[in-house]
Amino acid sequence: MTAPALPRPSTATTMAKVVGLLALAYLLYWLPTFYKASQVGTFIRVMTLVLAAMGLNMLTGYTGQISVGHGAFYGIGAYSVAILVGEYEWGHFPALAVGVALSFVVGMAIGIPALRIRGMYLALVTLGLAALFPQILQRFSDITGGTQGMRVSKFEAPEGSGLANDQWQYYVILAFVVVAFVLVRNGVRSRPGRAMVAIRDNEIAAEVMGVRLSAYKVLVFGISAALAGLGGGLLVFNTNYVSANSFTIELSILILVMVVLGGVATPWGPVIGAVLVVYIPEWLPKDIPLLDVEGSALGPVLFAAVLILLMAVAPDGIMGLVRRIKGWALRQRRAPDVPGPGPNDSVPSH
Amino acid sequence: MSEFLQFLFLGLGQGAIYATLAVALVIIYRATGLLNFAQGEMAMFCTFVIWMAWDAGLPFPLAVLVGMAFGFVMGAVIQLAIIAPVTKRAHGNPLPVVMVTIGLFLALSSLAPIIWGTDAKVFPVAFGEGSIELFGASITHRVLGTLAILGLEVVVLWLIFQRTRLGLAMRAVASNEESSALAGVPVGRMLMIGWGMAAAFGALAGGLAAYVGLTNTLMLVPLIYAFAAATLGGFDSPGGAVVGGLVVGVVTELSAHYIPFIGNDLKLLPAFLLILIVLLVRPQGLFGKRQVVRV
Amino acid sequence: MNGALLEVANLEAGYGPVEVLRNVHFSVASGEIVVILGANGAGKTTTLRAISGMIGCRGSVVFAGQSIRGRRPDQLVAAGIAHVPQGRGTITDLTVEENLRIGAYCRRDGEVDADIARWFDVFPRLGERATQPAGSMSGGEQQMLAIARALMARPTLLLLDEPSLGLAPLVTKELFAQLATVNAETGTAVLVVEQNANLALAIAHRGYVLEVGELVASGSAEELMTDEAIRKAYLGF
Ligand SMILES: Nc1ncnc2c1ncn2[C@@H]1O[C@H](COP(=O)(O)OP(=O)(O)OP(=O)(O)O)[C@@H](O)[C@H]1O
Ligand SMILES: [Mg+2]
After folding, report:
1. Does the structure show a pLDDT above 80 at A212?
2. How many alpha carbons fall within 13 Å on the CB side of residue B45?
3. Is C15 a residue whose pLDDT tops 80?
4. pLDDT tens across A235-247, in order?
5. Architecture of the domain delimited by A33-156+164-283
6. What average pLDDT does the segment C187-193 reach?
7. Which of A213, B226, B246, C206 has the most CB atoms at less than 10 Å from its CB?
8. Who among B174, B183, B187 is closest to C149 (CB)?
9. What residues make up the domain containing C97?
10. Average pLDDT, whole number, for chain A?
């Protein structure tokens, strides 16, 4: 059961990749120097959601389980930071560490029933968690502020850095995202990472092969939840404010939409997904002729429609679509001399 | 004692609503092994149709029937136009189909306020406002009527599944699609009817639940209770869903009243714990069949 | 009109990229019992699956004068073709009697109960277990049930895929005797795939031999039984 050896990329493709990455790095560096604080706030929101989506992508993409509750883990991270910084005057980073640890532990606890159950039951449990989370916030509104929300002190740029607060927050959070991205990518290629994929492809076979199934599954769920918690905690670095209204079931669903839209089990899928889910409602026209609605209200309807369509035509999301088109183009080019499917071609036969 | 009875009956009344929605979930799960996350939102959508019919002057029971008929068509169309093609292309992978139900959830819940606005709609209370005294507790007509409806549902379900050709064919498809097709059962049509029936039951649940005021979040929380009910009863057992629904309703109301920590704010907690514990201890539920796992 | 009930020509079928059948021709006349012999993996099951619409195929499949290629299995049951698949093919969660009722799903006449009684007569084991879930019966009992279930549709053509699989020799013998009787009494044509060539040829009128997706021999039952090569390969003497 070894993965097929990947064909060695040619020097040209490697060069193109390096240039692309450098351009992306420069873009990411440049964005907060150009845009004003409110826009930077949106960039930050996207990045924190990328973290949550990356976490969920790990779970869904590499173990085949889904969670409809990552909004709750995101919320656990956010409220840990908000409460510890706002009420107990902790530093931002220790508070963040607690938030990540807490979502890790809750994630592991929620992941345990998934050991005994296959299929989509984890979705059921996590949906329950997503629905319960706002109730918990309301129940303890004396600490959380409930739907009124609570204010948190600013995460300020160090003296003499020459950066505005929002720029500083942006670069710090960007650093977290980049590190997490690299770690997750390498983690997936490591031995335990390949074990995860084995679980996804065939649970019983993986067990027979000696993969410690239950340990990995629970651990994966914990890490996945911790990444979402990290995202939520970092969000508060910028917003200075949390409210129970922002951590609803809809948030959880949108995080899932990001993953699926971008493409499950692809490293860039969550990034693309998060950008689209945040920005599409903003790009929609303010007034829509004939309909008495704000454009942004149509955002979720649109996602839903795209999601359903995507599941019908390309269950592997936008990245999957891209890969297929690439494979198709490659075949077209090679068609005269090399018949047969390309290496990454997974188009199901009819 | 009378206080206890009061809340017991309140719980049974709510439980009947959860049971009705849980039956809808079970009908679809049995036929296709799918958890339909959009069941609650489909019900909410149908409830708006009930409201429109009632608002247009139809008597309430008739309006509910209109909503159920709408639900049947909606469920059947969704199955035919969306679920069937996606299932076919998914080659046994449950993920795309579940994602589609989540997409439907999102679509319906965000479409409803666009169509009907965000203000809560005033909705009739089924069976009116009155109440009767029983063992010193006062029980509203609504609760009694809702329980009666649940009783009727059980009888109708039993008749359909045990006494009709259609019900037999639906049970056959639920057990083994391929063998059913070879025996001459039009499997696709049965799945369509199953989705239609489920959505009609959902509409009924919505019509009973919306007396608190109708918005697009009407069935969000009841869906969780219904999932808890179906988990407890066993996802492949309609009878289990009914029992599960009543238990969940009673446990929720009693614990909200008697356990200060839970109160009205944390009402979902018992149902959530119930889901966790049942899945840990007895994943097939009280009345379900044990699932066999194969390589 | 050549009198053939089922006429298969140029049949090609497979699974995805795997081609299993090539250029298969054969026919079954009304009221005839035809047996298909062949080694494991020759494509016998695939042939039956293609006829009953369980998998797609190319070529022509004509039943009672009409092309039936591309129709769904349930439509074909209504048209008169009942298929008992390899393995059980019963609906294990339903009772024995319900399985028989499901077999008559396509029928609208009032004689379903009478037919159930009739097959209970023919297969008394089924009658004794009428209210028991089919899944709780033995393999042989389920095989009988599957066949009775198919006959409940009052088919004009019965497709049987290795009916003797897992049956005791005595039971197999009994089963084939029953099939011959049913065929004689109701005129139901039977296309049967069978490993037990001796028994099958004993009740069959004609037979075909399938080898790696192609028909290599055909003839009357007597001809096949006396053919040296076939005797060696399939009859074992
Ligand atoms: N679902 C499938 N997918 C891919 N290939 C298949 C499938 N079913 C059968 N095959 C292949 O098709 C060929 C013919 O199979 P088939 O089941 O028709 O054989 P058979 O003659 O019925 O054999 P047996 O006597 O063992 O039942 C075999 O090589 C088999 O591997
Ligand atoms: Mg075979």
Report:
1. no
2. 25
3. yes
4. 998 888 888 888 9
5. Orthogonal Bundle (1.10)
6. 94
7. B226
8. B183
9. 83-154
10. 80
Ligand 1 centre from C213 Cα, in Å? 10
Q: Which residues of chain C lie closer than 8 angstroms to A350, CB-CB?
A: 16
Does some domain include residue C212?
yes
**Interval B144-198: pLDDT, tens:** 999 999 999 999 999 999 999 999 999 999 989 999 999 999 999 999 999 999 9
pLDDT band at A340 (very low <50, low <70, confident <90, very high): very low
**Any domain includes C71:** yes
Residues 6+ apart with CB under 8 A from C69: C57, C59, C60, C61
Residues of B in contact with C106 (CB under 8 A): 184
Last residue of one domain, picked from the residues C154, C175, C206: C154
Query: Residue C170 domain-assigned?
Result: no
Q: Is any Cβ of chain A less than 8 angstroms from the Cβ of B275?
A: yes
User: Which of these three, C128, C154, C180, is where a domain ends?
Assistant: C154
Q: Do C133 and C63 share a structural domain? A: no
Which chain B residues have a beta carbon less than 8 Å from that of A129? 272
Whether the predicted pLDDT of C76 surpasses 90: yes
Tokens standing for residue C196: 């037990």
The answer to whether the CB of C118 falls within 8 A of the CB of C130 is no
Give the strand pairing for C57-63 and C4-15: antiparallel
What's the CA gap between A111 and A121, in Å, rounded?
10
A109 vs C3, more confident: A109
Task: Identify the top-confidence range among A119-128, B40-49, B90-99, C90-99.
Answer: B40-49
Total domains present in chain C: 2
Quick one: closest CA in A to C18, which residue?
Answer: A349
Q: Is residue C64 located within the same domain as residue C89?
A: no
Which chain B residue's Cα is nearest to C108? B165
Average pLDDT of the residues in B225-232: 95
Which of A123, A125, A307 lies closest to B103 in CB terms?
Answer: A307
Is C178 part of any domain?
no
Query: Atom 9 in ligand 1: which residue has the minimum CA distance?
Result: C46
Residues in B 35-54 with any Cβ partner in A closer than 8 A: 35, 37
Number of residues in chain C: 237
Q: Do C18 and C42 belong together in one domain?
A: yes
Instruction: Give the binding-site residues of ligand 1, using a 6 Å CB cut-off.
Output: C 15, 18, 20, 38, 40-46, 86
**Closest chain C residue to A349 measured between Cα atoms?**
C16
Q: Please tell me which residue, C235 or B221, carries the higher pLDDT value.
A: B221
How much is the pTM? Answer: 0.88
Q: Inform me whether the C-beta atom of residue B267 falls under 8 Å from chain A C-beta atoms.
A: yes
Please state whether beta strands C157-161 and C81-84 pair in parallel, antiparallel, or not at all (unpaired).
parallel
Are both C11 and C70 inside the same structural domain?
A: yes
Q: Whose CA is nearest to atom 30 of ligand 1?
A: C41
Rounded distance, CA A254 to CA C167, Å? 56
Average pLDDT over residues C197-209: 89
Give B59 to chain A, closest Cα distance, Å.
Answer: 30
Q: Which residue has the tokens 């005595």?
A: C170
Residue C144 shares a structural domain with residue C87 = yes
With CB atoms and an 8 Å threshold, state whether A60 touches B95.
Answer: yes
Q: In this model, does residue A343 exceed pLDDT 50? A: no
CA trace torsion C60, C65, C69, C71 (10° rounding): 180
- Best residue among C11, C46, C211 to mutate for probing ligand 1's pocket (most ligand atoms within 8 Å of CB) is C46
What distance in angstroms lies between residue C39's CA and the mean position of ligand 2's atoms? 9
Residue type, B147: L
Cα–Cα distance between C177 and C154 in angstroms, integer? 19
Q: How many Å is the Cα radius of gyration of chain A?
A: 21
Mutate to test the interface with B, among C76, C77, C94 (most CBs of B within 10 A): C94
Indicate if the pLDDT at residue B275 is higher than 60.
yes
